[in-house]
Amino acid sequence: MLVIIVGDDQAxxxxxxxxxxxxxxxxxxxxxxxxxxxxxxxxxxxAALLVHKTQAAxxxxxxRLRKRFGERVELVAVTQVEGQELETLxxxxxxxxxWSLGASFLxxxxxxxxxxxxxxxxxxxxxxxxxxVEELMRAxxxxxxxxxxxxxxxxxxxxxxxxxxxxxxxxxxTRAAYEEALHQDxxxxxxxxxxxxxxxKTPFAVALRRGSPDxxxxxxLDRGELTGARRDGRFVGLLTSIDDELQVELNRRMExxxxxxxxxxxxxxxxLSQSLVVAFTALDSTIPQLPPPxxxxxxxxxxxxxxxxxxxxxxxxxxxxxxxxxxxxxxxDLVQDLVDSLARRxxxxxxxxxxxxxxSGIVLADPxxxxxxxxxxxxxxxxxMPHGGRLRLxxxxxxxxxxxxxxxxxxxxxxxxxxxVEDQGAPLPEAMVRSGFDPMSHGLHEGLRWAIALxxxxxxxxxxxxxxxxxxxxxxxxxxxGVAIEVFLPIVVRAPARLRRPETGQNVAVGGGxxxxxxxxxxxxxxMTERLLRGAGYQVVxxxxxxxxxxxxxxxxxEIKLVMLDIVMPEMGGRVASERIRALSGDxxxxxxxxxxxxxxxxxxxxxxxxxxLPKPFNAGQLLREVHNALHGR
Length: 634
Known about the structure:
Layout: E1 2-6, H1 10-20, E2 26-31, E3 46-50, H2 55-69, E4 73-79, E5 95-98, H3 103-125, H4 132-139, E6 146-152, E7 158-159, H5 175-180, H6 184-200, E8 204-212, E9 216-227, E10 234-241, H7 243-286, H8 292-318, E11 327-330, H9 331-346, E12 350-356, E13 362-365, H10 367-383, E14 389-399, E15 415-423, H11 430-434, H12 448-463, E16 467-474, E17 480-490, E18 515-519, H13 523-535, E19 539-543, H14 546-555, E20 560-566, H15 574-584, E21 590-594, H16 600-607, E22 613-615, H17 620-631
Helix pairs in contact: 3-7, 7-8, 7-13, 8-12, 9-10, 10-12, 14-15
């Protein structure tokens, strides 16, 4: 199926084009208006994703596409506003996707669109020579899994005129056999619905479970209409399997539930992290100047606060308030850099084993986010083995064809980097495993802390187009022997020749008197950043917003060697300020920072590998290292 993306929201067009990627849907174009959509072959099925900033613009392009392609195109409105109802777009589109539900939900909806288009095409080629009601119902078949039936009320016989290649041998031939295959609890519901329809001629539609206790039941939607008199008439019905659609809806609701929880957690963590980063900045600038006893005491206080900052960062990642800054990295390099620190965190009572085989794949990932994932998984495993045990961290490359066990339907073919953390602790609750680390899935008890941590892992990995699964491991005798949590990340097919190796060392070079312009609307952050830079040998000039930054730079452009810009500021943000400063001097380097959720445009801006970005909260070592690298072009 061909997919076109049409709309005046440029950032959304780019995001959707990336989300579709290679696979079963072929992206034809991503254009601002329906007028510039290229020609399409007559036999091609077409889905148009509409990404407009206003409903008026959406309506105009929808009308143009419908006029040009007719029934060959299905119009799908995609919006970032999750609460927007389909009714507001009534008559304009065939389907609706809240982009906040993610790329996997978009792919699921496109699968259903593809099925509908196939069904409509089949119906047009072979319209049944029956009543008008039957023709209309056949033309409206939804997913290619529908069965049209005709129930003769006088004889009780059921006919399946479009039953598949086997002639519908498995379908019931009488109404009694049809009802016998229903779940016992649904027979009365069906009887009541039919009586209401026969008496009042109200639309008939009821969800039913069909099958058997031994083989299990599947969910079907049965809807239809009586033609003729009740005594000798015919009932024309449509039986549709809705298991897949139900699963999509359940996933949507679960994702909305997770998003709501994550939004609350992320907002609280964001405020907490802003306070913590100011505290850490003050401590980092004060501790080195104190005599040993006070230095030790404040150092202990700083270590205690580090746990709170770690959890704030995790919750920000869960709420997607810490946008990733992806780089091309080899996971084995990242793990190698962290082996010593992870071993220290686990303690001597844990036997820590790292295995890397055939793990040469390159992934596009944020090193700091991946460090968070490793820290959470190893910390959780260590806590599950208070009296000692073995923790095995393994890295491999794999394809999904080689993997046993449950895998997400959205996962694509190709090579994946697989990171597996296996411990010898107690099993995870099955409800938690089945729900994909929904922190509320197994109740509020002592496991909630680590349920939230694992939900954070899931959120981070999903942002990197990967997936996570957990397995309760058994030994040779079938007895529980621990837990394995696996992270899958897509391997980059064409990796760049030069990789940026994650920088985790603690050695930070000092400045040589270079003048740095620090721009931030937070006065405390401005002041603390200035103290750290001056203490490291830099000169500093500050500005509270982008407009003032441009003025200061214009006055001292010959002296300023680096501009440190906050992205989100109320009076001219960092993007616009950098463009105006760049116009004044094309060779000055920039270091962008942000501690708040950025807009899609800002996220795309800092994701460009040519721009250096330092996410807040940061510590003194990270700040000085990034400033030094920016000044020296590293």
